[in-house]
Amino acid sequence: MFDSLTDPSVILTLAILHGIIGTIAAFVAQKKGRSYPRWLMIGLIGGTPALIVALLLKPTTDNF
Questions:
Q1: Own/partner pairs, 28-34, CB within 8 angstroms, 24+ separation
Q2: Which of 2, 26, 34, 53 minimizes the number of CB atoms within 10 Å of its CB?
Q3: 35-44 tens-digit pLDDT
Q4: What pTM does this model have?
Q5: In whole angstroms, what is the distance from residue 26 CA to residue 43 CA?
């Protein structure tokens, strides 16, 4: 059933999608006033859960 998960092209595709989702999480967090580099690291490690958390974040109140 999961034999295709060992195929290098499948692994590469999943890794690229994970990175894209992590980058989107960083952009969302930045738009809400959070640190882009910090959220990029969180997003690249966390992937989809990081995106969900970034979407649930409340915007910061201090605008520089």
A1: 28/54, 28/55, 28/57, 29/54, 29/57, 32/57, 32/58, 32/59, 32/60, 33/59, 33/60, 33/62, 33/63, 34/60
A2: 2
A3: 999 999 999 9
A4: 0.84
A5: 6
Angle at which helix 36-46 crosses helix 8-31, to 10 degrees, equals 150
Where do we find the tokens 């999608």? Answer: 17
**Residue 20 structure tokens:** 């894209």
d(CA 33, CA 28): 9
> Per the structure block, which two tokens stand in for 19?
């990175």
Compute the C-alpha angle 49/36/52, nearest 5°. Answer: 20
